[in-house]
Amino acid sequence: MSTSASSSASGSSTGLTPLFAVTGVTGDPEIRAFLEKAVANLVEGMGEIRGGADVPGLPDASGALARFFPLYVLVAALPHARAHHRERGVPEEVSRRTLADVGRAVALHRRWHGTGGILSARWLSLHLRGELYQLGRLQFQRSRIDRRTSGSIAAAGLTPGLDDPALSVHVPDFMGPLSPRACDRSLDLARDFFARHHPEEPCSVATCASWLLDPQLKRYLPGDSNIVRFQERFRPGEKPAEPEDMTPVRFVFGTTEVPLERLPRRTALQRAVLDHLRDGGHWYVRTGWLSL
């Protein structure tokens, strides 16, 4: 991790890791022992489908040390992740692009909170544990079919059932347009990648759980929009009982702390999210599946 000669003692003036926090971890036997225990828990059963691992904060820590400690756990786990990738024969380019999400999470913490730190450490544990890979435009997580999609899959006459291996599709917001061509390429890459590097988990379906699959978006977006065309790849699973109105707000605008009436309305998607809520509607994280 980089440090800066201009970093203040509090670490509040820079997004880089404060030097005192680094030495506070490596030089304090109790903190170092806690770090090593957290790393051991993260990498236990490396490569197994666990849905990630908890990345704990440092008890009683404050300031920069508290904000950066989960990042230290992830960085300390990096050699284990790289070794696992090599063991599985994962190409260097795939490994690099996958693990680069850690740096993006540091940048997002700065953008959302105005301070150094890291967002969504448990989510990033998937990357470090060999459970998730970046393949072109999309990310694919090794997972299992759950009850939200198993009924729909069975109704379509396919054999994969509850708890059978599947790939969960994730849509990062930093890889450019969600074009049909880019998605086709990612799915092709995924078919080849997982057959080659995880042949013990044959997957014939991919699932997705996302606000992007809420069919209400079709009321507001053109039929040939990238989001609508992405939706139409998936057969719907069960509708959730509870809405998640702030999920699209967080992803579209990068914050849920600004009053809705003050958010920008420059794009069709921004207007769709806001107009729907203004008119008393609700947004849902919907699930869907497609055949591989």
Annotation keywords:
globular, disordered N terminus, single chain, alpha+beta, 6 strands, six-stranded mixed sheet, 292 residues, 11 helices
In words, what does this structure look like?
There is one protein chain. The chain has 292 residues and is an alpha+beta fold. It is built from eleven helices and six strands. The chain has helices at residues 19-27, 29-43, 63-88, 92-99, 101-113, 121-128, 147-155, 180-197, 226-231, 246-253, 268-278, and strands at residues 132-135, 138-144, 165-170, 205-210, 235-236, 286-291. It has a six-stranded mixed β-sheet with strand order 1-2-3-4-6-5. Helix 8 (180-197) links the parallel strand 3 and strand 4. Helix 1 (19-27) packs across helix 2, helix 2 (29-43) packs parallel to helix 3 and helix 10 runs antiparallel to helix 11. The chain is globular and about 60 Å long. Residues 1-20 have low confidence and may be disordered.
Which secondary structure elements does this structure contain, and how are they paired or packed?
Blueprint: H1 19-27, H2 29-43, H3 63-88, H4 92-99, H5 101-113, H6 121-128, E1 132-135, E2 138-144, H7 147-155, E3 165-170, H8 180-197, E4 205-210, H9 226-231, E5 235-236, H10 246-253, H11 268-278, E6 286-291
Parallel strand pairs: 3-4
Antiparallel strand pairs: 1-2, 2-3, 4-6, 5-6
